Amino acid sequence: MQNIIIGFILLISLLGLVGNGVVIWLLGFRIKRNPYTTYILNLSVADFGVLICLIFTAISKSVDILNGRNHFDYLYFYINFDLFFFAYSTSQFLLAAISIERCVAAFFPLWHRCHRPPHLSAIACALIWILSSLLPAVNITLHVTNISFTHDVLFQLIVNVFLCAPLMLISTLTFFIKFYSKANQLQRGKLITAILLALLFFLIFAFPLNLIYIILYIFYIHFSFVTLLSLILIGLLCASLNSSINPLIYFLVGKRLRQSHARVSIKVALQRVFEDEQDCKREQNIKSESLE
User: Fold this and answer.
1) Name one Pfam family in it (predicted).
2) Quick check: 83 and 151 in contact, CB under 8 A?
């Protein structure tokens, strides 16, 4: 059973690595930057890091199984997991920032359009990366110097569960109610749909690993090693799905057209999802004027 789960983790992570790599290339070098592409670019980088750590974990565990070993090299295990949870937590903080930004834009559209600091997205992303790196940096330093082998990722996961998740839920629900209560806004919902789907799949796939790790951390003495490893692998499988599915969401949402038979490139699909809202409004005005 563990071999099957590890195989799925490896396959999904490799596919997700390709998808996030394409998104990083297009948003970083081929598509005009706006506040939301800055967030999504950083989110794709964080997911890319999550998937790399998962690939190394799956490969190392496969080698252990082939060699008949049933344990990890503890130093490698802790360092790799610190890096994994660093990228994993960063992606959650970025999703929280995106949901809050959308909520503010819905409730205060005039301020968001006219008075929003131009580099707010870049500053917010930089702060998120710095804050997310503090605890893993301390842990890795302690592990490398053999000062301590205690693992304090629990505190980071508690922050994810009791801070990030409530912020995402509250801001997303309020924004969803605000946005979909106005029928005239339904015409420009590609970016909204992509964000809501990303948050939905986060709750389905990413959130369980937080709870699994916290439960195992507190009640680990009640579980056998095989049970512990199986539960962790299930959580990692969910995390690989979460980090791999976002590029597919962007493409499918951007590809959605009234003419279902039309062929759309990945670049065009991403442009349709992340185009600036003012451009969307301008396109709507042009369409309405042409109809008149």
Assistant:
1) 7tm_1
2) no
151 contact partners, CB below 8 Å, separation of at least 6? 78, 81, 139
SS3 224: coil
Q: Supply the pTM of this predicted model.
A: 0.84
Write out pLDDT tens, residues 151-210.
556 666 777 777 777 888 887 778 777 766 654 454 446 777 787 888 888 878 877 787
Task: Output the six-digit token pair for 72.
Answer: 């990890």
| Tens-digit pLDDT profile for residues 116-152 | 888 899 999 999 999 888 877 777 777 667 665 555 5
68: left (phi over 0), alpha (psi -120 to 50) or beta: left
Give the chain's domain count: 1
For residue 132, the tally of other CB atoms under 10 A from its CB is 23
- Identify the residue whose tokens are 């109610």: 177
Question: How many angstroms separate the CA atoms of 114 and 136, rounded?
Answer: 38
Residue 266 belongs to domain spanning: 2-291
From residue 206, alpha-carbon distances to 15, 33, 195, 202, 290 in Å are: 17, 27, 15, 5, 45
Quick one: which of 165, 172, 168, 279 has its CA closest to 211? 165
- CATH number for the domain spanning 229: value is 1.20.1070.10
CA 274 to chain centre: 16
CA distances 63 to 67, 69, 113, Å, are: 6, 8, 53
Could you tell me where the DSSP H helices lie in the chain?
Answer: 2-25, 35-66, 74-107, 109-114, 120-144, 153-159, 165-180, 190-201, 207-219, 225-255, 266-274, 277-291
User: Side-chain half-sphere of 189: how many Cα atoms within 13 Å?
Assistant: 17
Residue 50: closest CA among 245, 263, 261, 256: 245
Instruction: Tell me the three state secondary structure of residue 69.
Output: coil
